[in-house]
Amino acid sequence: MSARSIAAAVAAGEQSAVSVLDEHLARVGQREAQIHAFNLVTEDAARSQAEAVDAAVAAGEPVGPLAGVPLALKDNMCTRGIPTTCSSRILEGWRPPYNATVVDRLADAGAVFVGKTNLDEFAMGSSTENSAFGPTRNPLDTGRVPGGSSGGSAAAVAADFAPLAIGSDTGGSIRQPAAFCGIVGMKPTYGAVSRYGMIAFGSSLDQFGPFANDVADAAMLFDAIAGHDPLDSTSIPDFTPDAVAHLDRGVEGLRVGVVRELSGGEGSVEGLSADVIARTNEAVEALTAAGAQVSEVSVPSATLGLSAYYIVAPAEASSNLARYDGVRYGMRVDAPTTGEMNTATRTAGFGPEVKRRIMLGTYALSAGYYDAFYGKALKVRTMMLRDFASVYENVDVLITPTAPTTAFPFGERSADPMTMYVNDVCTIPSNLTGHPGISVPFGVGDDGLPVGVQVLAPALHDGLTFQVGAVLEAAASGGGAS
Question: Which of 43, 147, 413, 463 is the most buried (most CB within 10 A)?
Answer without folding.
Answer: 147
